[in-house]
Amino acid sequence: MRPLTPKFPKLLHGGDYNPEQWLRYPEILKQDVELMKKADINCVSVGIFSWAHLEPNEGEYDFDWLEKIIDNLYKNGIYTVLATPSGAKALWMSEKYEEIRRVQNNGVRDLSGALSDQGVSIAQAIQKGQSEAGVPLVFMTHEAPVSAIRKAVETMRKSDFLLAPAICYRVMG
Question: Deepest of 8, 10, 72, 91, by most Cβ within 10 A of its Cβ?
Fold first, then answer.
């Protein structure tokens, strides 16, 4: 079979890569690349959920971390496709422009920005009912540092969209 381009005569093999959630853990980033090479991955898309890291505050940009990630991938034979970082907007934007927050079918605005900015992902969310006066919302996160959870809960407490204080319970498995 003749290659589509002589510059890249291989099949591109890879997927989305979201290193921004592990920037504080260089050993994980290193292991990511090792595992990609072991799986013969030669191309990944990056930047999909990185808006909060690329623009941590309005008008303040940081591309250094992304440049290092891309350079390291390239040195290891892995090409990158740079994605539009609109998969997750920065928390400052949601706080400043409330109207851009996602709204669930039941009319409740999304709380996940406070969590994702701390590298915390939601494992499960439970909300029963719908009311102008508000309803309880319970969510469980995937394993995360306690400090990250505390920062996220503190951000939620400062927001204007909670009708009652956010409460955090630690569940040990």
Answer: 91
